[in-house]
């Protein structure tokens, strides 16, 4: 293969087992495509001889077995389709998100809108190492946000308001954490056990359990792979704009303090994570107790 072009350098083109072929990765924020974009990718794949595409774990689409000499043309076609070549090197890569309140009955927050905003603001930002950002709308964590460099989880703090609780036990039945019990004929919440999934708020037929507030838990330093590690809790914030501001500060901190060729999870201590955590919490932290 001749010298790599921009798509190779950015990680949007991946050399295959056969070094004379490559896989081209398209950028698909939150895994959301319009039908026109989907049809466009099909046309592009067919144009350059692909027999199919591959859906990745980070919600992107890859076109396999491409001729590297076609990369510039493929990149131009993908850009015209509003699905430009993606990234997978030392930078912020494709933002992943679950469906959120758009269509999931368990969701606490709108992940898709926030993911698009984060993508517009941060995708492709150069960092010392690859930075994966994943949003999940509830603690069920269907897309493993805890195992990313930056994980954002939508949560709800439940509150039993004054009202007529019949002691029907619906909330007890739905709570998977055993954080609710019926005492003296009414429901009692154990917030120390509660993971703030919000299912009790949705399940109470008499609206006696309400959401005190919805918020985002932001975690840092998770990883998957051979040695998975859950990210450490950094801060909890209440508004989307605060999430964006915190992510910006995290990325700046990583850029200034991180070292290349080493995952973020393996260098939190030497990057003085405790200090940045204290600074961000003092500026943004909300009480959820």
TrEMBL record:
Keywords of this entry: 4Fe-4S, Heme, Iron, Iron-sulfur, Metal-binding, Oxidoreductase
The keyword 4Fe-4S is assigned to this record: yes
Residues annotated as domain 4Fe-4S ferredoxin-type: 156-184, 185-214
Gene Ontology terms for molecular function: 4 iron, 4 sulfur cluster binding; heme binding; metal ion binding; oxidoreductase activity
Keyword Acetylation: no
Family annotation (InterPro entries): 4Fe4S_Fe-S-bd (IPR017896), 4Fe4S_Fe_S_CS (IPR017900), NIR_SIR_4Fe-4S (IPR051329), NiRdtase/SiRdtase_haem-b_fer (IPR005117), Nit/Sulf_reduc_fer-like_dom_sf (IPR036136), NO2/SO3_Rdtase_4Fe4S_dom (IPR006067), NO2/SO3_Rdtase_4Fe4S_sf (IPR045854), NO2/SO3_Rdtase_FeS/sirohaem_BS (IPR006066)
Name of this chain's protein: Nitrite and sulphite reductase 4Fe-4S region
């Amino acid at each position: 293969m001749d010298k790599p072009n921009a798509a190779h350098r950015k990680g949007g083109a991946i050399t295959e087992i056969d070094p004379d072929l490559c896989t081209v990765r398209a950028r698909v924020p939150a895994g959301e495509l319009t039908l026109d974009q989907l049809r466009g990718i099909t046309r592009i794949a067919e144009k350059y001889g692909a027999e199919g595409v591959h859906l990745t774990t980070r919600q992107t689409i890859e076109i396999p077995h491409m001729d590297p000499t076609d990369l510039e043309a493929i990149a131009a076609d993908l850009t015209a389709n509003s699905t430009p070549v993606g990234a997978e090197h030392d930078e912020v890569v494709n933002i992943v998100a679950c469906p959120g309140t758009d269509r999931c009955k368990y969701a606490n927050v709108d992940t898709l809108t926030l993911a698009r905003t984060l993508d517009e603001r941060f995708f492709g930002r150069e960092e010392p190492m690859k930075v994966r950002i994943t949003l999940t709308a509830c603690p069920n964590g269907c897309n493993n946000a805890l195992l990313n460099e930056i994980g954002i989880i939508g949560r709800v703090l439940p509150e039993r308001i004054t009202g007529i609780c019949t002691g029907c036990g619906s909330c007890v039945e739905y709570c998977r954490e055993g954080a609710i019990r019926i005492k003296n004929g009414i429901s009692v919440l154990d917030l120390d056990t509660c993971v703030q999934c919000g299912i009790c708020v949705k399940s109470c037929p008499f609206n006696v359990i309400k959401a005190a507030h919805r918020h985002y838990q932001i975690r840092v330093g998770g990883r998957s792979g051979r040695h998975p590690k859950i990210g450490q809790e950094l801060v909890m914030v209440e508004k989307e704009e605060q999430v964006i501001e915190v992510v910006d500060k995290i990325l700046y901190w990583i850029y200034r303090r991180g070292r290349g060729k080493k995952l973020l999870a393996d260098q939190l201590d030497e990057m003085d994570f405790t200090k940045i955590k204290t600074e961000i919490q003092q500026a943004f932290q909300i009480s959820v107790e």
